[in-house]
């Protein structure tokens, strides 16, 4: 009986230790991560973007580049270049020599709708669970699961990993409800890199023979 009581006590102690670590620490590290990302004047990153289709057992990976400055961004991914200067959005397809111009009424949305928020705002719209600390490629990494407060979104969980020592992002995985997962793995990350406002605007006149689709 004494052994059983001691065993139960150990289990309860472990449970409360994990519970104490999971919720508050998850919330704290996510807040620290988001606040640090928001504190940067600009961000430049190169990454791989992978689409996993679990139903068809298909995986497709693409190289990408992203530059962020406030609400402005430039995204180069999957044969498309997207420029957003805070007001106007240009979606340019070099192979088709076509650009679509629009003035989005809102830039709220997922990665393609608003990649400027990829590293921020997680503490506001999600419940967090601290999964743990691990070593990857010789570096200590925090892993956190985020559950959206809005259950109508297309994904059920976002899994993020970032370095323990400087909170730089390592990977972000969106687990879709439809069996499609989107995985972003950061290859290079540079904060406060020089970024001019003109880097976030596209000038169709500089490209001969380009087709312009103006939706403004």
The H-and-E topology, N to C, reads as: HEEEEEEHEEEEEE
CATH homologous superfamily caption? Lipoprotein localisation LolA/LolB/LppX
Quick one: overall form? globular
Rounded average pLDDT: 84
* Largest sheet data: 12 strands, mixed
Please give the number of β-strands.
Answer: 12
Helix coverage percent: 10-25%
Q: List low-confidence stretches.
A: 1-24
CATH domain class: Mainly Beta
Helix/sheet category: alpha+beta
Radius of gyration: 21 Å
In total, the number of domains comes to 1
Question: Can you walk me through this structure?
Answer:
- The chain has a single domain (27-214), classed as Clam (outer membrane lipoprotein receptor (LolB), chain A), CATH 2.50.20.10.
- Helix content is 19%, strand content 45%.
- By secondary structure, the chain is an alpha+beta fold.
- The chain has helices spanning 2-39, 122-125; strands at 43-53, 58-69, 72-77, 80-84, 89-93, 98-102, 126-136, 139-148, 155-163, 169-176, 180-191, 211-214.
- Strands 7-8-9-10-11-1-2-3-4-5-6-12 form a 12-stranded mixed beta sheet.
- Strand 9 and strand 10 form a beta hairpin.
- The chain has 2 helices and 12 strands.
- Mean pLDDT is 84; it is low at 1-24.
- It is globular, with a radius of gyration of 21 Å.
